[in-house]
UniProtKB/TrEMBL annotation:
Residues 29-43 have a biased composition (Low complexity). GO terms for molecular function: DNA binding. Transmembrane segments: none annotated. The keyword Nucleotide-binding does not apply. One of its GO terms (biological process) is DNA replication. Residues 1-58 are annotated as: Disordered. It holds the Pfam family Rep_1. Keywords: DNA replication. It comes from the Bacteria. It comes from Faecalibacterium prausnitzii. The keyword Hydrolase does not apply. This is Protein rep. Belongs to the Gram-positive plasmids replication protein type 1 family. The lineage of its organism: Bacteria, Bacillati, Bacillota, Clostridia, Eubacteriales.
Length: 494
């Protein structure tokens, strides 16, 4: 059986896409020959931080403005690639059938408002794509919200364990004062931060390795063996996230997870658990990989070895769990200590090890010494392979158990976009669209100025618009008017 073609599953527009094998052979070899590009040098620097920061280092700290400019520029680059992939612009118009992530930031009204609450700013009257995989702007929003969910669950888990322990103590010591250690939840909760990998090389297309890792995980955590293991090691549930990097050995998808334990494990139990998970992981990944064959008919060897297939770290206490959760979901440029939620959910901001990069860095000119055409082919391969995939998932019932609301990625993006505040400036649709295409970083600069409530600077950056009066701002806030209503008639003509 050959590697599945992209077909309608990966390319709903029906546009021919690059051959996976051609991409592997032409592009991965180019990276192997140039491992010391600018991005590679930045990614291969020394790492620091808590013990669980072993898989990746966080991109060197950038200011909030710089990170926003980077995200807007990368979003525009992705859009250009996807527009060309869909047939290119005709008479100045984009193709009708564009993926949702290529339309992110597109205006949906005659005027685009600039809103702020004095601390944060955003545009109104534009669409959000809600893609955690392929949109540099929405990914940051969604991952930030996912990190909050994981941290909330860990806090609730610790409190549930504390309450159970306090109830048991009071039942045994009726009438006595509760000990101080049972009054706070900080010391409760045991967690496992884990990483699962598979063997990969330059000949393997991302669609195959990603499929193997996702299906391998699904098979691993299903069935009676997993149920018995969960009971044996007191596993209440887990949060699982996929991270993908690219480097000299091609695509490297891998899994990060946090397991919630209802009790501590001794050294013997920890050792037994690690060996059992590794054996089951290898078995399931090999089983999935049997469905794929190289061009020469031989099977791919994706089974990890004992040394690199799994990494488990056992943590106790609410703070340790929260730290790991934050590291899973960490956004690029976040400052401070790395904690377990950031490692799970924030694959958009971490540089890979050994000179590898995260996929968004492929949108940067000069990344890994690749040509623009090579970067474009790699980005298309990544976009196609991740379509309709879930990046961050929870075990069944855990969200409900931990009192975390169930929201899809698009819902999270829209929820986070509901920033309270007032629209202080409105720019014509046509001006905003031109800047979005030709100078996307200017949009980030305008938001930075809006956060300072410097509307003259906003007007300079986004010319042709109107600075709104207090009465006009209130009318929009009350739903009595739209931002575009205050534009001169001529300015809204396209």
């Amino acid at each position: 059986m050959s590697v599945p073609t992209q077909g309608t599953k990966w390319n709903p527009m029906g546009v021919p896409s690059p051959s996976q094998h051609q991409t592997a052979e032409r592009l991965h070899a180019a990276v192997a020959a140039k491992p010391q590009g600018v991005a590679a040098e930045a990614a291969s620097g020394a790492r620091s931080g808590p013990p669980w920061e072993k898989t990746n280092k966080i991109t060197p700290s950038l200011s909030r403005t710089d990170l926003r400019r980077l995200a807007y520029g990368r979003r525009a680059e992705s859009r250009k690639i996807l527009v060309r992939h869909a047939g290119g612009e005709t008479l100045g118009f984009e193709p009708i059938k564009l993926p949702r992530c290529a339309r992110c930031g597109q205006p949906v009204d005659t005027g685009v408002g600039v809103m702020t609450n004095g601390e944060k700013a955003r545009f109104t009257g534009t669409m959000l794509c809600g893609s955690i995989w392929a949109c540099p702007t929405c990914s940051a929003i969604i991952r930030h919200e996912r990190a909050h969910e994981v941290a909330l669950a860990i806090g609730n888990h610790a409190e549930k364990l504390r309450k159970a322990a306090a109830d048991q103590w009071q039942a045994e010591h009726e009438g006595q004062r509760l000990p101080p250690e049972l009054m706070v939840s900080d010391s409760f909760g045991n967690y496992i931060f884990g990483t699962l990998t598979l063997r990969h090389d330059r000949t393997m297309p991302l669609a195959m390795t990603l499929d193997a890792i996702l299906k391998g995980w699904t098979k691993m955590i299903n069935g009676s063996p997993w149920q018995r293991a969960s009971e044996r090691w007191k596993i209440r549930g887990f949060v699982r996230a996929i991270e993908i990097t690219y480097g000299v050995n091609g695509w490297h998808p891998h899994i990060h997870f946090v397991m919630f334990l209802d009790g501590d494990l001794d050294d013997g139990q920890r050792e037994a658990m690690q060996q059992w998970l590794l054996d089951r992981w290898k078995t399931m990944v090999k089983r999935v990989a049997k469905a794929y064959k190289k061009k020469d008919g031989n099977p791919y060897n994706v089974a990890p070895n004992d040394e690199h297939g799994i990494d488990l770290q056992f943590k106790s206490g609410k703070d340790a769990g929260t730290a790991a959760a934050e590291y899973i979901t960490k956004i690029q440029g976040d400052k401070g200590g790395v904690t377990l939620a950031q490692e799970i959910a924030r694959g958009d901001i971490k540089d890979g090890r050994m000179g590898s990069v995260n996929p968004f860095q492929l949108l940067d000119s000069g990344c890994l010494g690749l040509s623009d055409f090579q970067r474009e082919d790699l980005w298309l391969e990544y976009w196609q392979a991740t379509l309709r995939r879930r990046c961050i998932t929870w075990s069944r019932g855990l969200k409900e158990d931990m009192e975390v609301e169930e929201l899809e990625d698009e819902e999270l993006a829209e929820k986070a976009d509901e920033l309270p505040g007032l629209v202080g400036y409105v720019v014509p649709n046509r001006v905003y669209k031109d800047i979005r295409k030709s100078a996307p970083e200017t949009l980030a600069d305008a938001l930075d100025a809006a956060e300072r409530e410097d509307w003259q600077e906003v007007a300079r950056l986004l010319p042709g618009g109107v600075i709104l009066t207090d009465e006009q701002q209130d009318a929009i806030a009350d739903g009595e008017a739209k931002p575009g209503d205050y534009l001169p008639t001529m300015s809204v003509m396209v």
